[in-house]
Amino acid sequence: MKKITVEDIGRLDQLGPAEEKRFWKVFTRALAADDGAAAKSHLAAGRPITYVDDEYPDELVRKWPDGRREFVDVAADGTVHVVWELAQDQAKGKTPRA
């Protein structure tokens, strides 16, 4: 039996049902154990990070190294579109779509 890792996400369409089930178990455990080190590393290197915030469950948030945050949508071709720029003092939970 082949070992399944989170890197297998790129070949999900090639996994059989049992392998895919194992992948999601591994992936879920990896998410639960995430300490944020990778995100901090990207920000420290000057790159933005994209995530979902519990305060904005229906939005995809992009954060820049300088602290700016914005809601983004990603088109099918991978193009990122800024939907709304959050003010530094933006009240949590307030969205332009609410």
Description:
- The protein has 98 residues and is α+β, with helices and mostly antiparallel strands.
- 24% of the residues lie in helices and 20% in strands.
- The protein contains 2 helices and 4 strands; from the N terminus they run ααββββ.
- The protein has helices at 17-32, 37-44; strands at 49-51, 60-63, 69-74, 80-86.
- The chain has a 4-stranded antiparallel sheet with strand order 1-2-3-4.
- It is elongated, with a radius of gyration of 17 Å.
- The relative contact order is 0.10.
- The mean pLDDT is 86.
Features:
alpha+beta; 20% strand; four-stranded antiparallel beta sheet; 2 helices; 98 residues
Outline:
This protein is α+β, with helices and mostly antiparallel strands.
Mean pLDDT: 86
Helix content: 10-25%
Q: C-alpha Rg, in Å? A: 17 Å
Q: Shape from CA axes? A: elongated
Topology:
Blueprint: H1 17-32, H2 37-44, E1 49-51, E2 60-63, E3 69-74, E4 80-86
Antiparallel strand pairs: 1-2, 2-3, 3-4
